[in-house]
Amino acid sequence: MGYIVRRLLATVPVMAVVAVVVFLLIHLSPGDPAALIAGDLATEDDIARLRLALGLNQPLWQQFVLWLTRLLSGDLGTSIFTQVPVSELLAQRLEPTLSIAALTMALTLAVAVPLGTLAAHRAGSWVDRLVMLFSVLAFSVPIFLVGYLLIYSLAIQLGWFPVQGYARFADGAGAWLRSLALPCINLALVYIALVTRMTRATVLEVLHEDYIRTARAKGLGVLPVLIHALRNAAIPIATTVGVGIALLIGGVVVTETVFAIPGVGRLVIDSVQRHDYPVIQSVLLVSAGVYVLINLLIDLSYGLFDPRIRY
Description:
This protein has helices at 2-28, 33-38, 44-54, 60-72, 86-121, 126-140, 143-157, 173-207, 210-217, 222-232, 234-258, 264-274, 277-305. It is an all-alpha fold. The chain has two domains: 2-72, no CATH class; 86-305, Orthogonal Bundle (MetI-like fold). α7 (143-157) packs across α8. The protein contains 13 helices and no strands.
């Protein structure tokens, strides 16, 4: 329990720093934020009214206190252009993004961990070289290029999947999976390569430990030995998955743009183009909170893999 409490308390200063940086985003941008939002055709009176509406004429510390007070009460603000509460905009866009993220990570773990373990078991063989070649290629090719290749080959030429768009889960699980197949494959390739290389390296190191040699000498089968080795190599793998979550946040933006999926990534791009700062601030804050939460869960999982960490 003490380990869990310490990890929970460690997230407080992190989120505090994130909140300050996100708030200062509107003030760190070059130029007058009100003038950027109003556009080139706005008059001085329009800019002055917008500055008053956004509270930009108040001292910085007062702006931060008001913003933090609204944030703690659950008010993420209102979009400047659509006049819709940001919480509603996020609620409309969360399902596609969460679906892509969840299926991508599930596909990554289902493929990368067995593939990396197999490469470690057959280290130096043609299987190992083939897996490493796949990892290098998958990690090197840009996400958007792979996305267009998947669209051309599997959607346009073969017609197996829709070219673009998103079908909600309420419309049927089959249509939902077909609409997410190409985006998830596209996004998962990078993380499969990353996790596969880490799994191979850590499992290969564990396989040379004395207790593994002892298990083999006692006649333990190949599969039980690999499972035992994988459990002892789980901490670096879990850390890599946590790092992959940060990359996933950026990858979702590109993937949703390529496949025209109306998720949070598309919302960010549209908001940046229109200088819709309340939406940008809220998305950044929520993304940082999700990232901190997932890494907290990964930190807590260390105690399950190695009970010594809890002490």
